[in-house]
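Interim report to the steering committee. The following record documents the input for TetR/AcrR family transcriptional regulator (200 residues).
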Amino acid sequence: MSTTEPRRDAGSTSSGTRPGGRSARVQAAVHQAVAELVAEQGPDQLTIPAVAARAGVNPTTVYRRWGDVSQLLQSVAVTRLRPHDPAPDTGDLRADLTEWAERTLASITHPEGLALLRGSISRSASDRTPNPCLDARALQIATILAHADARGEPHPTQQEAMDHLLAPLFFRVLLALEPTDAPYARSLVADLLDRPPTPR
């Protein structure tokens, strides 16, 4: 899994484009249509014509802006799952990781968020491309650990944090395993930070 900064959202506008206006309305309508269709029918049934019809726009507009279904789905997932929110920075590693875990879990267990996540990961797997949602979460973990390091606070490695936080959260949510609630998220943080350190 890449930990580099995620690629630019395929549905975002360039820096020279004025925000708002018709462009923003089109994006909002298309994104909402994708979210509804994925929740209703699943990602495998998603098509550009169906999205355009639901959003009330011309299919050519969708093709021109997003290219194909895969890019469109990734764009909506990145926007709706909000993985680009700033990483928590409370001044304490345990608090930061706990807030991150709870916030991430809330995002991906919402029915709409879960449907988009499943669709996004399925598309990435079939296209053999990096998943921007996962990459962004990994980057948030790296940022949290960098803050701890700057404070001189002992911390696990990024790989350890991903293996003990990111992986089980996404695994349990995607496979609908219980528990997947805030206490479970907090227990993952406790298990990570309270376990004996791994010899370097």
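The longest helix spans residues 21-41. The committee is asked to note this result when reviewing the revised timeline.
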